[in-house]
TrEMBL record:
Catalytic reaction equation(s): 2 a phenolic donor + H2O2 = 2 a phenolic radical donor + 2 H2O
Binding residues for Ca(2+) 2: T193, D245, D253
The record's free-text note on cofactor binding: Binds 2 calcium ions per subunit. Binds 1 heme b (iron(II)-protoporphyrin IX) group per subunit.
Disulfide bond sites: C34-C114, C67-C72, C120-C323, C199-C232
Location of the Plant heme peroxidase family profile domain: 24-327
Record-level Gene Ontology MF annotations: heme binding; lactoperoxidase activity; metal ion binding
Leader peptide range in chain numbering: 1-22
Binding locations of heme b: H192
Needed co-factor(s): Ca(2+); heme b
EC number: 1.11.1.7
GO BP annotations listed: hydrogen peroxide catabolic process; response to oxidative stress
Domain of life where this protein originates: Eukaryota
Record-given protein name: Peroxidase
Organism: Dorcoceras hygrometricum
C-alpha cells in the first residue's frame, strides 16, 4: 500500500520540478560558463549604437517581435530556408526590422570568448536592454537561460503580432494571450518614445479614413494630420519615414505619453490607449518628465516579464552556432 502510493507521488514531484524548471531563468545563469558575457555584449552593442543611434530602437523592437512569436526563442533571427516555408523575418510585420548585423557581431564576439555556451535568444534580450540604456533609458538585470528554437514561420508573425490598427480591446486581448496585462501594454507601448515608422504603417489615418474620401482619423489632432500629410504624400508612400516621437525620437523619455495626451499618437494602437481607464490613467500620470523614474522602473519590470514569454529552457531548444541558422 505505502510503496504504491509513494512511487507515483515521487514521480509527480519530479515532473512538477521539471515543469517549474522549464519556466526558470536566472540572472547569473552564465556566471561560470561565460563570466564576461554581459561586458562583451555591451561593448559590441555600444560600438554599433554609438555610430548609429537609430539602431537602438530597432534592436528593442526585434526583441519584442521575437518574444511575441513562439516565445523569446530567437526565432525572429532565423533566415528562410525554402521559399514555400518562409521564416518570420520574411513576414509583413518584419520587413521593417533592422539591426540583424548587430546580433551577428555580438554573437561572434561572444563565441570567441565562450564557444557554444550562450543562446541567441539570450543575446537578443541583453542587446535590447543595452540598446535602451545606451540612449538614455533604464537598465535592468536580465534573467537568462533561454534556449534557441528550431522553428520560424512567417504566418505566425501575422497571427501573433498586434497590427497598428488594433483598438485597445484587441490590444489587451493580444497582450493577455502572452500573460501581459493592460498595464504592461501601456508601459511597453512606451517603447514608441524612440524610433521611426514608415508612412505605410499609419497613412490610412491620414487619407480616406474608413473608406471615406479625403477624411482623416478624427481621434488625431488635425494640425498633426496636416503635418504628417506633408511628410507622407498619397498614395501610400512606402519609402518615407517619420519619427514616432518627433524631436525626441532618439531619447528614451516620457514624451510618448505627453504626445498621446495631445492626441498625437502615431498609430491607432497608440491613440486608442486613451480609451481604456487603466491605460488612460497611466498616460495621465506620466505626461510630465518628472514621472520619468516611475516609467523607467515600470518599463524595466515589464521588459523582464516580456522576456519570459514562452521561453525554452531545454530540448528541443538548442544553443545556435549562428543566429540566422538552426544547427
Ligand atoms: C502594442 C502593440 C504594438 C504595435 C501595434 C506596434 C507597431 C509598430 C509599428 C507599426 C512600428 C513601425 C514599423 C515601421 O513602419 O517601420 C513600430 C515601431 C517600433 N516599435 Fe512597436 N508596436 C507595438 C508594441 C511595441 C512594443 C511592446 C515595443 C517594445 C517594447 C515596441 C517597440 C517599437 C520600436 C522601438 C519601434 C521603432 C523601430 C525602429 O525605429 O526601427 N513596439 N511598432
Ligand atoms: C530557479 O533558479 C534559481 C537560481 O538558479 C534557483 O534558486 C531556483 O531554485 C530555481 N527555481 C526553480 C523552480 O527551479
Ligand atoms: C503556417 O505555415 C505552415 C507551413 O509553413 C503551415 O503548416 C501552417 O498550417 C500555417 N498556419 C497557418 C495558421 O496558416
Ligand atoms: C474593437 O474592435 C473589435 C473588433 O473589430 C470590436 O468588436 C470592438 O467593439 C472594438 N472595441 C472598441 C472599444 O472600439
Ligand atoms: C481631396 O483632397 C484633394 C487635396 O486637398 C483635392 O484635390 C480633391 O479635390 C479632394 N477630393 C474630394 C473628392 O473632395
Ligand atoms: C515617396 O515620396 C518621396 C518624396 O516625399 C519620393 O522621393 C519617393 O520617391 C516616394 N516613394 C514612393 C515609393 O512613392
Ligand atoms: C502563461 O502562463 C500560463 C500559466 O503560468 C502558462 O501555462 C503559459 O505557458 C503562459 N503563456 C505564455 C505565452 O508564456
Ligand atoms: C520579404 C522581406 O522584405 N523580408 C525582409 C525582412 O527583413 C530583413 C531584414 O531587414 C530583410 O533582409 C528581408 O529581406
Amino acid at each position: 500500500m505505502k510503496t504504491k502510493s509513494v512511487v507515483p507521488s515521487f514521480l509527480s514531484v519530479i515532473i512538477l520540478l521539471q515543469l517549474a524548471n522549464a519556466q526558470n531563468l536566472s540572472v547569473g545563469y552564465y556566471s561560470k560558463s561565460c563570466p564576461n558575457l554581459e561586458s562583451i555584449v555591451e561593448k559590441t552593442t555600444a560600438r554599433f549604437v554609438s555610430s548609429a543611434k537609430s539602431l537602438a530602437p530597432a534592436l528593442l523592437r526585434m526583441h519584442f517581435h521575437d518574444c511575441f512569436v513562439r516565445g523569446c526563442d530567437g526565432s525572429v533571427l532565423i533566415n528562410t530556408r525554402s521559399k514555400n516555408d518562409p521564416a518570420e523575418k520574411d513576414s509583413l510585420p518584419n520587413q521593417s526590422l533592422r539591426g540583424f548585423k548587430v546580433i551577428d557581431a555580438v554573437k561572434s564576439d561572444v563565441e570567441k570568448a565562450c564557444r557554444n555556451k550562450v543562446s541567441c535568444a539570450d543575446i537578443l534580450a541583453l542587446v535590447a536592454r543595452d540598446a535602451v540604456k545606451l540612449i538614455g533609458g533604464p537598465s535592468w538585470p536580465v534573467p537568462l537561460g533561454r534556449k534557441d528554437g528550431r522553428i520560424s514561420r512567417a504566418n505566425e508573425s501575422l497571427a501573433n503580432l498586434p497590427p497598428p490598427f488594433f483598438n485597445v480591446t484587441q490590444l489587451i486581448a493580444s497582450f493577455a494571450s502572452k500573460n501581459l496585462t493592460a498595464k504592461d501594454l501601456v508601459i511597453l507601448s512606451g517603447g514608441h518614445t524612440i524610433g521611426i515608422s514608415h508612412c505605410s504603417s499609419f497613412s490610412s489615418r491620414l487619407y480616406n479614413f474608413n473608406g471615406q474620401v479625403n477624411s482623416s482619423d478624427p481621434s488625431m489632432d488635425p494640425k498633426y494630420v496636416a503635418a504628417l500629410k506633408k511628410k507622407c504624400p498619397p498614395p501610400g508612400n512606402t519609402t518615407n519615414i517619420v519619427d514616432m516621437d518627433p524631436g525626441s525620437g532618439l531619447d528614451f523619455d516620457t514624451n510618448y505619453y505627453k504626445i498621446l495626451a495631445q492626441r498625437r499618437g502615431l498609430f491607432q494602437s497608440d491613440a486608442t490607449l486613451l480609451q481604456n481607464s487603466v491605460t488612460n490613467a497611466y498616460i495621465q500620470q506620466h505626461v510630465n518628465a518628472a514621472a520619468e523614474s516611475s516609467f523607467f522602473k515600470d518599463f524595466a519590470d515589464s521588459m523582464v516579464k516580456m522576456g519570459k514569454i514562452g521561453v525554452l529552457t531545454g530540448p528541443p531548444g538548442e544553443i545556435r552556432k549562428i543566429c540566422s541558422k538552426i544547427n
